[in-house]
Every structure is written in structure tokens, then in C-alpha cells.
């Protein structure tokens, strides 16, 4: 299967539907033919009832910096964001499969990111760079000397529902609340309040995190501009950094998200955060940019796996 398909000049354009541990994406190849969609069009495509449905829309473009590609990221509400770890793994996989290389560089609005192949072609490691830990780098609306636990709470002063989150930026801002049970809170209700809290001038991704075993953390995420999500790569990185920074864990952790586990290593040698996790191509499709109607045109990983299993079974019984 040709994983990257070059855009056509006509109104019909091919795309891939992908996901990283359930965090799902619509991926366009716009390296040869530019793609311009309005925020309203993106939101319509992102609608899970009437459109394709996705957490983020990814546009792969030529890199002004000379990297293998530039990755533009829009949330399903049409807003543009600077970083998405799961999408970086997905695009890294596509570029490596296309080029035959075991390492590619992806330019984003958050900087250059490096993706590396593993023994399993569907599992990719991404160097997410250094976390940003100062209050003005995250950014926060006011100065905090220590961002391991900032003054913020939801609920009554004498009995807050959630309080004193850690704050980290992985190219986008994150607030991490340490809890004893991530399911004990209705994140669909408190998430929007915290995402738009005045202390986060650019909004924030909100995570509930529970350390349930040595270097094992269960995490639930309200993603800025998206809502509840099965997985968020930058949130996994931010949680791993926050846990190690507060000496709650070591520098290598497994972050268990609803969509599956992600391996995080905050390297001591250079302070870079390495993220390793799976990717999946769900299907190939084609969309009419005028009507935004779409149709599937090719199989995904699961279909190929099923076909291979059927061939194996048929061969065994022959």
C-alpha cells in the first residue's frame, strides 16, 4: 500500500484516516498541491456524526526549513495548534515507509521533531525535544516560582474537587492533576472549565494522573480544542516529565491512556523527551472539497491483517 498519496489538482483529494492509540487524524498530503480549508470546513469534516470525524486534521506540506516535511495541525474545531505527539508518530511512520529511511525530521510550528523506526514498522519513537517548565514558557498568566504545583483549584475553597496541578509545556500547555482514581471525576464537566481557566492564557490540555505502580501511570485527558480523547502524546510526555520532576517516578515511565500504553523517557543526558507508541492506518479515502462528501477507497492495517490471517488459514488447510 502506498501510504502517502499526492494530492490532485481537482476538487477531489485523497486522504488517510489514521490513529495513534485511538487519537485519530485525517491526513492530507499537500506537498505538491497546496490545500486550503477554512476553520468551518475543518469543523464540518471533524464532526463525528456528519463528517469524517477526527481529533486533529494533519496537513503534510513541504518544509521551509529543509526537513523531510512540515506538519500542520488543526483541531476538530478548526483551530490550529503547534504540537501533537501521536500525529508526529503517524506522519513519521508514513515518511519513513515512503523513503525507506529509519529516521526522518518533521518541521512543526513548535520546532523540528525527529522520528525513528523500531523493529515494528507500526511503532515509532519521536524525540519531542525539551519540556518547557518556566511559567512564562508554558505560558501561565502569572509568575510561579515552582510549576510543579501551581495555585489552582476547582470547587469549594475548603474542599476542592481538584487542586495544585503541575504545569508543563511540550510545545502546547498542560495542567496535570495527581489523583487516586482518574475515573472518580467527570472530566467532561471539569475539563472545559480548566482548559479555559484564566491562569492558562492560551488554554491548556488537562490531565488526571494516577501512579498505580512503580513507573506506571494511568492518565485521562481533556484535550484543548478537542475534548475527551483516547490518547494524547504530548499529555503523556508532560505527565512523564511532571512525575519525574517531582520524584514520583523515575525518568522512564509507561503512560496508560484509554487507547493504550505509551513509553516515555525523559533523558538525563540532554533533557529530551522520547515517546514510543503504536500507529494505525484505518483506511484510505477521497473527499470532494466542494461538498465535503467522502468515500473510502482503500483498506487499512486491520483489513490487511485480516486478509493476511485468512491467507494463512487457507494455506494451512490446503
UniProtKB/TrEMBL annotation:
It catalyses: (2S,6S)-2,6-diaminopimelate = meso-2,6-diaminopimelate. It is found in: Cytoplasm. Pathway: Amino-acid biosynthesis; L-lysine biosynthesis via DAP pathway; DL-2,6-diaminopimelate from LL-2,6-diaminopimelate: step 1/1. Residues 295-318 are annotated as: Disordered. It comes from the Bacteria. Its EC number is 5.1.1.7. SUPFAM superfamilies: Diaminopimelate epimerase-like. GO terms for cellular component: cytosol. GO terms for biological process: lysine biosynthetic process via diaminopimelate. The active site is at residues 84, 232. One of its GO terms (molecular function) is diaminopimelate epimerase activity. It is an enzyme of class 5 (isomerase). The record marks 174, 223 as: Could be important to modulate the pK values of the two catalytic cysteine residues. Pfam families: DAP_epimerase (PF01678). Residues 305-318 have a biased composition (Low complexity). Keywords: Amino-acid biosynthesis, Cytoplasm, Isomerase, Lysine biosynthesis. Substrate binds at residues 23, 56, 75, 85-86, 172, 205, 223-224, 233-234. Homodimer. Belongs to the diaminopimelate epimerase family. Catalyzes the stereoinversion of LL-2,6-diaminopimelate (L,L-DAP) to meso-diaminopimelate (meso-DAP), a precursor of L-lysine and an essential component of the bacterial peptidoglycan. NCBIfam families: DapF. This is Diaminopimelate epimerase. It comes from Roseibium suaedae.
